[in-house]
Design brief:
67 residues; mainly alpha; Histone, subunit A; 3 helices
């Protein structure tokens, strides 16, 4: 189960499509977004550790996304 608020994911879909959204569609996207976010976060944490930091920064996230 996703930790992302379903209402927020619903708004994202509605805003991008202008269509109504089923609850199952919002849940499915939330699960996928969480999976992608976990992968990005894990890789960003490697950048932070390599730099000798205990804090993941916005630059770490940007580096992962640029890759």
């Amino acid at each position: 189960m996703s930790e992302l608020p379903i209402a927020a994911v619903d708004r994202i879909i509605r805003k991008s499509s202008g269509l109504r959204v089923s609850e199952t569609a919002a849940k499915e996207l939330a699960n996928h977004l969480e999976d992608v976010g976990m992968k990005i976060s894990q890789e960003a944490s490697l950048y932070a550790k390599h730099a000798g930091r205990k804090t993941v920064t916005d630059e770490d996230i940007r580096l992962v996304l640029k890759k």
